[in-house]
Every structure is written in structure tokens, then in C-alpha cells.
């Protein structure tokens, strides 16, 4: 019998990360933060001064980058160790998001991360968070969710998240960056952000985290 997978896809700031981690804890399943893999590769490429527009060079970098997740307690954000360095803080910065989005457009880079992502599918189950979890990586997933929220609400959430971490950025700047990244992710030729045909859509605008977690859990345990 196949290990069950719940995919949670959506744009940045839709609440995917928070919701996915909490749902994984409640179900006692493993958790894959695929965005962190793209961020880590973007960062590793920048560290070794690889040209981010050179698809093959970045793909080679993706294959040799060591990425380790140190699980947080009770749904806390896990620490991410990239080539032996704790990169957790750097990875959350908008510069890492932009680098991730740039390198994620290269097909060889996506191929390089394919097997690694699928290797997270281990018993008793997996919650996979990203852009193409339900469409490309786990098309056979039993449960698929597509989370959205208005751009303004997503910018406000990111703003609060960064402020809590002591990073100062303007809301308007964030909104612009989010809209630019959305457009790039939706319009790219490979694995563009789009819902799987069989995904359940949840618009999280104005909903509490608990409400969204409950709705997602209800899909798995009706
Ligand atoms: O989800 P997160 O904001 O961490 O993702 C960072 C970037 O990585 C996204 O903007 C997207 O371009 C890319 N990504 C992707 N496929 C995934 C996860 C993330 O292309 N499955």
C-alpha cells in the first residue's frame, strides 16, 4: 500500500507553511517544505558565486548541496542546515525567496530536486508544501489542497512575520515583491503555479489558522 500524501500548494503568504506544519503535527506525518529546498539551492548558488541564470551550473549546485532539516517541536519552524551552516534566518529573507524563484524556473534544477522531494514520502504519511506538489511531484496524492489569500493579506502576514523576526521592511515594498513573484511563478514555462484539477481550494483571507487547519484535517479524516 502506498504511503498517503497530502499536498498543500499555493502562492507565497497564503499560509501554506504554517498550515502544513500544524496539519503534519496533528496527523503525525512527515513534512516537506519544498520551497526551503529551492531557497537553499538559491543560497548555495549565491555562496559559490554561480550565475543564477545558468541552468546547468545551478542544477550541478543543486545536486551537490547538502540540505538538512532539524525538526522543530510541535509545529515550530524547523532549522535548515545548508552545507553545514544554519541558514534558517537567511532563507526566510525576501532575497532568498527571489533567488529561489529565479532558479526554480530552470527545468534541470527542478529535475535535480525531484527524487529528493519524493524521498520524503515515508510511513505513516507526508504533508508536502509547495507550488507543484499536487501537479508534478505527487500527482497521485490522495489529498490535495490549493490555498489562496488576497495579495494584500499575504503581504500583511509576511510583514508581521518579518517584523516579529526584527526585520524591517515596508508593507508596500513587500506587496510589490509578492505580486512580482506571483507573476513570475504563475507565468513560467515549467511547473507554473496552478492548482491540480482535483485540488480542494481554500481562500484563507480573513480565516484564522485554526479554521484552516480544521478544514484541511477534515479532508483527511472526514
Ligand atoms: O514557498 P516559498 O516562498 O518558500 O518558495 C520560494 C520560491 O521557490 C517560490 O517563489 C517558487 O518560485 C519556488 N518554488 C517552486 N516549487 C516549489 C516550491 C517553491 O518553484 N514546489
From TrEMBL:
Q: What class of enzyme is it?
A: transferase
The UniProt entry's GO CC annotations, sorted and at most eight, read: cytosol
Q: Which residues are listed for ATP binding in this entry?
A: 10-18
Where is this protein found?
Cytoplasm
Q: Which domain of life is it from?
A: Bacteria
Q: Which UniProt keywords apply?
A: ATP-binding, Cytoplasm, Kinase, Nucleotide-binding, Transferase
Reaction it catalyzes: CMP + ATP = CDP + ADP; dCMP + ATP = dCDP + ADP
One Pfam assignment: Cytidylate_kin
GO terms assigned for molecular function? ATP binding; CMP kinase activity; dCMP kinase activity
Q: Which GO biological process entries does UniProt record here?
A: nucleobase-containing small molecule interconversion; pyrimidine nucleotide metabolic process
Q: Does the keyword Cytoplasm apply?
A: yes
Per the database record, which ranges form the Cytidylate kinase domain?
Answer: 7-221
Q: Is-annotated flag, keyword Protein biosynthesis?
A: no
Q: Known EC number(s)?
A: 2.7.4.25
- Name the SUPFAM superfamilies on file: P-loop containing nucleoside triphosphate hydrolases
PANTHER family the UniProt entry points to: CYTIDYLATE KINASE, CYTIDYLATE KINASE/PANTOATE-BETA-ALANINE LIGASE
State the family named in the UniProt similarity comment for this chain.
Belongs to the cytidylate kinase family. Type 1 subfamily.
User: Which HAMAP family would you find in this protein's record?
Assistant: Cytidyl_kinase_type1
Q: What is this protein called?
A: Cytidylate kinase
Which species?
A: Luteimonas cucumeris
